[in-house]
Write a structure and sequence with these properties.
Length: 453
């Protein structure tokens, strides 16, 4: 067998190996992972809303040309293809008074920055393939990362691209030459700018803890234990949510507001302004709609990487690695990396489910309530959290004091969650007053109609 290390002119240069690895990750992780999950979420949201409203949900589309499937709804999956074909074939109408170039640029400017955010998220551990270099060839790089980009300025990249998306919403509202669209664009811009401050403050604590801006190093930091049971591979993991519960809530809330989904859907308030993309149809509207679901996936992925341990197991990870690979077993390394990547995607799916549940559980905030929440509640809480976290890190570098404070904060937050009501309604007492509690469904029903464009 030829040892390609003896023929360096036939070996792949390291920089080209890195480029090929990044392109492969972009195709598999971003196009194959993010876009597929975002597409499936368009159906999941409709099914979940139907479940919450005691409806059947989408079940009419069929694969009528495929024998045996013509009478099967297949859980509504054919609707994904039907919706995609409708978006692709529907006329992209441009109003006469609109600014044509800017009108067409806005959906792209709204989608592209959000999609590129996922590039810095580590999906799995580094898989070392150098163990096969001597036995097979040198065309495969010594290690493969399940991550597209590794910029040193990690989180600054996230903040910079997230801020660019504001231009897409503002431009869509202004270029439409529609007063209602302009009002929606102004609402979206003010809301997104207001919550960017809280979003950044929610991550400062983790930056101080890990002493880095790179997401892969933040994830690696969480692979250790805060407290370990003797020499056993078991204990309390050093996950960000245990050390920074307030930071987690701040970041998740602020990022959720950035997605402009209910209860933060003032820019798309169908009963008030109809939305900043009211004049869009066809793929223009389709890009705005799929951007919303891509934001859901990216928010879940970034939150998982920073606060939920990323791809790490809570315990027994080292035991699993030792069982699968002794450092010379390539397939063992691949299976181990694939297992942790699966764990990462399961965490992402859980957070996607949480976002769908929030979307269909809470009524829309008023505009003054959104601004008060951002500036008078999240911002002060973020500043206090940064100062307290910094002081405890300096006082106890082992982070045990910060973890104890984190558990106290988690217990306090759990105590604030109201329990189930103990009031029992007598049988036959369903008067007109009981219908008042369904006011929130009216708002959700209007929102559902807006998604049916």
């Amino acid at each position: 067998m030829t040892n390609w290390s003896d023929v360096p002119e036939k070996c792949l240069a390291p920089q080209w190996a890195g480029v090929i690895s990044s392109v492969f990750n972009m195709l598999v992780l971003m196009l194959g992972g993010v876009m597929i999950i975002a597409t499936l979420l368009t159906l999941a949201e409709r099914k979940w809303s139907a479940f919450m409203q005691d409806r059947v949900g989408p079940n009419r589309a069929r694969f009528s040309v495929i024998p045996g499937l013509s009478d099967r709804p297949l859980a509504g999956i054919p609707h994904i293809i039907a919706d995609s074909l409708k978006m692709l074939t529907k006329e992209g109408f441009v109003p006469d008074e609109a600014y044509g170039f800017l009108f067409r640029l806005a959906p792209v400017l709204n989608f592209a920055p959000v999609f590129c955010l996922f590039a810095i998220v580590p999906v799995g551990p580094r898989i070392f393939t150098g163990i096969m270099a001597q036995s097979v060839h040198q065309l495969i790089p010594g290690s493969v990362d399940l991550q597209v980009l590794h910029p040193d300025f990690g989180l600054l990249y996230l903040f910079a691209l997230a801020s660019i998306a504001v231009y897409g919403t503002a431009l869509a509202g202004w270029a439409s030459s529609n007063k209602f669209a302009l009002l929606g664009g102004v609402r979206a811009t003010s809301q997104m700018i207001s919550y960017e401050v809280a979003l950044g403050l929610g991550l400062v604590g983790m930056m101080c803890l890990t002493n880095t801006l790179r997401l892969e190093e933040m994830t690696s930091f969480q692979g250790a234990y805060l407290w370990q049971v003797g020499d056993h591979d078991f204990g309390l993991p050093r996950w960000g949510i245990f050390l920074q519960p307030i930071g987690f809530i701040l970041f998740f809330t602020a990022a959720f507001a950035e997605t402009k989904r209910a209860p933060f859907d003032l820019p798309e308030g169908e009963s008030e302004v109809i939305g900043y993309f009211v004049e869009y149809s066809g793929m223009g509207f389709g890009l705005f709609m799929i951007t919303e679901f891509v934001e859901v996936v990216v928010l879940a992925a970034v939150t998982t990487a920073i606060f939920l341990g990323g791809y790490h197991l809570p315990f027994l990870e080292k035991t699993l690695h030792d069982a699968l690979s002794d450092g010379t077993n390539l397939w063992g390394e691949i299976i181990f990396g694939s297992t942790l990547a699966t764990v990462f995607w399961l965490k992402v799916m859980f957070l996607c489910y949480v976002q769908l549940a929030v979307r269909w559980s809470f009524p829309r905030f008023r505009y003054d309530q959104i601004q008060r929440l951002g500036w008078q509640m999240l911002l002060p809480a973020g500043l206090i959290n940064v100062f307290v976290s910094g002081a405890l890190i300096l006082w106890d570098p082992s982070l045990h004091a910060l973890a104890i404070l984190g558990f106290i904060e988690i217990a306090a937050l759990m105590a604030l969650i109201p329990g189930p009501s103990k009031e029992v309604t007598p049988a036959g007492a369903h008067g007109h007053g009981s219908h008042g509690g369904h006011g929130g469904h009216d708002a959700h029903g209007a929102a559902a109609a807006g998604h049916g464009h």
